[in-house]
Design a protein that fits this description.
The longest helix is centred in the middle third of the chain and has 28 residues, at 125-152. This protein has 210 residues and is mainly α. Helix 1 crosses helix 4 (61-83), helix 5 crosses helix 9 (188-207) and helix 8 packs antiparallel against helix 9. The protein contains 9 helices and no strands. The mean pLDDT is 90. The chain folds into 2 domains: 11-58, Homeodomain-like (Arc Repressor Mutant, subunit A), CATH 1.10.10; 61-207, Tetracycline Repressor, domain 2 (Orthogonal Bundle), CATH 1.10.357.10.
Length: 210
């Protein structure tokens, strides 16, 4: 009888698998213990590895948390970009509102860890630089979406698209926090209304004589 052997993973595949398991374990540990309560030992054990395996992939638990947030936000922007490919005009507002509702109205398992980490993270030069780097990436991606939206709508882009994209990123992040605090007031529909006001304001400003 022939026994089919399992495919042997390459070194890079094994490393990728270990990293993925550590990230998954980190998300679970952060969800249960928060950032302060979680330890490298907890995460490594939950993934079935040693401390050495953890440090082969991440500098510390902050590095792992930031990686989780970067991957989550990257997936969120991928989702938004995909939703905006077809719609034009007011349909894009509806698509953006729907995206916001799907991404932010339900609590995230990482909320507690992020809240504990944020203040100290910004005060740490290395962590702050990394967060600025991701903000730059997000701003650039949103800039491209804004430009594409105006082009497909047959409208001239009002002013600097990167400035408008910065406002959009700030609106999403700030409104998401308010939505978690008071979901009955800070609704997804009101978020969509704010996006409309921002766009109309940019168009009005572009039409004003200098």
């Amino acid at each position: 009888m022939n026994v089919k052997r399992a495919k042997r993973l390459s070194r890079s595949e094994t490393a990728a698998q270990t990293r993925a398991r550590l990230l998954d374990a980190g998300a679970r540990v952060f969800a249960g213990e928060g950032f302060s309560g979680a330890t490298v030992e907890d995460i490594a054990e939950a993934a079935g590895y040693t401390r050495g395996a953890f440090y082969a992939h991440f500098v510390d638990k902050a590095d792992l948390l930031l990686t989780l947030l970067e991957e989550r936000d990257r997936a969120g922007l991928d989702d938004l970009e995909a939703r905006l490919q077809g719609p034009t005009g007011s349909e894009q507002i509806d698509a953006t509102t729907s995206w916001f509702a799907d991404r932010f109205t339900l609590p995230s398992a990482l909320d507690r860890a992020v809240a504990e980490f944020s203040a100290g993270g910004i005060a740490n030069p290395e962590h702050a630089a990394r967060m600025r780097g991701w903000f730059t990436t997000a701003r650039q991606r949103v800039t491209a979406m804004v430009e594409d939206g105006f082009t497909r709508a047959g409208m001239e882009m009002p002013g600097d698209p990167e400035r408008l994209a910065t406002m959009m990123v700030a609106l999403v992040n700030g409104y998401a926090m308010l939505q978690r605090l008071d979901p009955e007031v800070a609704t997804p529909e009101l978020f969509g209304e704010a996006v409309v006001y921002l766009g109309e304001g940019a168009l009005a400003a572009a039409g004003r004589p200098s």
